[in-house]
Amino acid sequence: MEKEKLIGNQSLIRGLRLLDILSDFPNGCPLAKLADISGLNKSTVHRLLQGLQSEGYVKTASTAGSYRLSIKCLSIGQKMLSSMNIINVVSPYLEQLNLTLGETVNFSQREEDKAIMIYKLEPTHGMLKTRAYIGQHMPLYCSAMGKLYLAYPRKVDYLLQYWQTHQTTIQQLTKNTITQLDEMEAELDAIRQNQFAMDKEENEIGVMCIACPIFDSFNQVNYAVSVSMSTYKLKKIGVDFFLKEIKKTAQDISRELGYVAG
């Protein structure tokens, strides 16, 4: 019985390994290459592929002798993502970030032309308490997390469309608020290059914010994490101190959501 159990577990692990390898070959992978990458002999790989194919997880590719994942694998992944409670997933990471930096931690979700605050942790030893609250709708053009959604849009020419349809709401809140399209385009280019955004007292004098994007399995940015602090503290300690921890948190959450860095 123990021997059969061991053999069964070994076959399961090998089969899962093949699925993982095939996920890197959307157009199919030849059996010989699968054997080479997995470190298994061809007969074992062929046997495992036959089992996976009979259960609907693998199918033959257009190139003879090649195999690829079936739509069933995608269906399972989508079911997992749809059942995932995002707050349960991110809260341990955000709580650790809050303890490490001691400042206000914010987590938002993209919704149409706004960023919605869906989670917030108050500072543990920082003195600054921001006016932001859970459920708040934040404009994209003047918030750190909002600018991330502008930098990583869901559709082409989104920035121009946003700018044209929000002329009445794009206002000079402080002397640092960006209200010109060409200035925002330059800002977003820098955000994409550095993979973080800042609110440099664009909403409120004396308060600054650093935000990092969270990528999902489709390489989309639908969530963002940020940390708010006083301008005085940021200038005293430096951006790099905060950015290192925020980026790490965003990367950890991205991996939880299935993102694989290229």
UniProtKB/TrEMBL annotation:
Residues 174-201 form a coiled coil. Residues 72-259 form the IclR-ED domain. It holds the Pfam family HTH_IclR. It comes from the Bacteria. The keyword DNA-binding applies. Keywords: Coiled coil, DNA-binding, Transcription, Transcription regulation. SMART domains: HTH_ICLR. One of its GO terms (molecular function) is DNA-binding transcription factor activity. GO terms for biological process: negative regulation of DNA-templated transcription. Residues 9-71 form the HTH iclR-type domain. This is Transcriptional regulator. It comes from Rodentibacter rarus.
